[in-house]
Amino acid sequence: MKELDAKDRAILAILSREARIPMKALAARVGLSRSAASERVTQLERTGVIRGYRADIGQMEPNAIRAFLLITLSHTPAIDMLDTLASYSEVRRVSSISGHLDLVIEVEVPSIDRLNTMRDIMASAEAVHDLTTLIVLRRDIDRAP
């Protein structure tokens, strides 16, 4: 895989915020022709830098339950685990972190039953060594855009 240059990083930054941006608009914003921008996006997809496009959905229910699932993996990398997590609409954010834990997963679910189901699914994954669940009681500061 070639090293990402400034144009690639600019494309990724835009696509991470606006996955449905028309190629013509993307190209104009990064200073490339439409065909050059399209070629770069195709190459980023082919090499796995871009693994997919997803809808980022805001809070759907005011009474939804939010929780953090803290996971220690039995081995890394665990790309299959990330792909599995991405397939669940309840998964809002996944962060790979340093230290004793490997992943922090933020979920938003409609019920405790659904939280338990998701927790059971994740805990049974081969790559998961340990899982801890923390339910969010309230958000005191939220600076999300």
What does this structure look like?
With 145 residues, the chain is an alpha+beta fold. The chain folds into 2 domains: 6-46, Arc Repressor Mutant, subunit A (Orthogonal Bundle), CATH 1.10.10; 65-135, Lrp/AsnC effector binding domain/regulation of amino acid metabolism (RAM) domain (Alpha-Beta Plaits), CATH 3.30.70. It has helices at 6-17, 23-30, 34-46, 79-86, 112-123; strands at 65-73, 91-96, 103-109, 128-135. The protein has a 4-stranded antiparallel sheet with strand order 2-3-1-4, with helices on one face. Strand 2 (91-96) and strand 3 (103-109) form a beta hairpin. Helix 2 (23-30) packs across helix 3. The longest helix has 13 residues, at 34-46. The relative contact order is 0.14. The model has no long low-confidence stretch (mean pLDDT 87).
Short description:
With 145 residues, this protein is of the alpha+beta class. 37% of the residues lie in helices and 21% in strands.
